[in-house]
Structure formats: structure tokens, C-alpha cells
Inverse folding.
């Protein structure tokens, strides 16, 4: 009888020790999980997007310099990575058929550029001038580009927003000919309003 009582006490002590050890472990794992969720949410909320941007391209066709305007341009600004992604179809009338919940859908031209800003504030900030480097993808070929731009903060409203303007140039010595449009000389992203939006696709896409 005494042996049984001693065994029971030992088992209770072992169980108590295990519970004591597991509590901080479970707490630590829970903290890590919560941090992961908060980190993902914070990152997702620091993307600013429009699907109605306007881009102007100057092309050389024969001896003539021609200006082309493209509407319904997709523009994404990632505040954490200080990157801007632009994609669009050359025939923007087709954009009406792209589902509104899809950003990276089907495009003819994609531009991925990194800004020279080490950090972008999401709170109110003065206009930020920056330089860019990146590449343009067309017909599965990459063309290096440079340029500059301005990022402006918009005050007020429930959804944080900003204004983005960019002047994009192909790297010196780079030649890009767009079918039916001619050789690209300059590309301008006209002043574009970007609104805060969670975009789950962004983490799965790479250029």
C-alpha cells in the first residue's frame, strides 16, 4: 500500500514537472506565431496600389517621335522593399476583361524598379525625391533601366494614400522596340494616386 502511495506521489510530481516545463515552451511558441502573423499583416498593409494609372511612352518610328498614352496601368509600391512594380497591356482596352481582384494577371510589359530610398515613412512626410534602377520585361527579354521620381504623401482619409510620379529611361546603349509602336525613348508614369491595399499575390510573384 505504501509503495502504491509513493508511486502515485512520484507520478504526480513528474506530471507537475512536465506541465511546468511545457507552459513556457507553449507560451514561447505562441509568441513566435503571433509575431509571424503581425509581421505578415504589417507587410501586407504596406503595399500601395492602383489599377488605373496612366503611363506615357515616347517612341521613335521612322524619323518621327511619337507619344503614346496607356491607361488602366497596374502600379504597386512596396514600402518595405522600396520597390515599384508596373505592368500593363499595350492594348489597354483588353484590361476591362481582367478581374478586379487580380493584379498580376496578364500583361505585355512589366517594369520592376528599386528606389534609392533606404526607408519610406507611412506617416505624413515631405516629398521624397529618388532615383531608380531596375528592368523592363517585354517578350521574355529584360532591359535595364534607370530614372528618377517623386513620392508625395496625401493627408487625411481612412485609407492612407500617396502620389507617385516617375521618369523612366532605358540604360544607355539599350534598345527596345515595341511591336507596332517603335523604338522606346522615354517612359513617364504620370502623377498617380496609390491607395493602401492588402495584396496576397505579391508574396508569390517574382520578376
Amino acid at each position: 500500500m505504501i509503495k502504491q502511495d509513493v508511486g502515485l506521489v512520484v507520478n504526480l510530481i513528474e506530471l507537475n514537472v512536465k506541465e511546468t516545463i511545457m507552459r513556457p515552451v507553449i507560451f514561447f511558441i505562441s509568441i513566435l506565431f503571433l509575431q509571424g502573423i503581425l509581421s505578415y499583416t504589417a507587410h501586407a498593409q504596406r503595399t500601395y496600389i492602383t489599377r488605373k494609372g496612366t503611363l506615357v511612352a515616347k517612341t521613335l518610328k521612322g524619323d518621327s517621335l511619337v507619344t503614346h498614352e496607356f491607361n488602366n496601368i497596374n502600379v504597386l509600391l512596396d514600402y518595405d522593399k522600396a520597390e515599384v512594380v508596373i505592368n500593363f497591356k499595350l492594348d489597354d482596352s483588353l484590361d476591362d476583361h481582367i478581374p478586379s481582384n487580380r493584379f498580376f494577371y496578364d500583361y505585355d510589359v512589366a517594369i520592376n524598379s528599386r528606389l534609392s530610398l533606404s526607408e519610406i515613412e507611412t506617416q505624413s512626410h515631405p516629398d521624397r525625391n529618388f532615383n531608380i534602377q531596375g528592368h523592363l520585361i517585354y517578350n521574355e527579354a529584360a532591359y535595364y533601366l534607370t530614372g528618377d521620381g517623386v513620392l508625395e504623401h496625401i493627408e487625411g482619409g481612412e485609407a492612407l494614400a500617396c502620389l507617385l510620379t516617375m521618369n523612366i529611361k532605358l540604360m544607355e546603349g539599350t534598345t527596345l522596340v515595341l511591336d507596332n509602336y517603335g523604338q522606346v525613348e522615354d517612359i513617364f508614369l504620370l502623377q498617380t494616386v496609390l491607395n493602401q491595399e492588402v495584396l496576397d499575390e505579391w508574396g508569390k510573384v517574382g520578376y
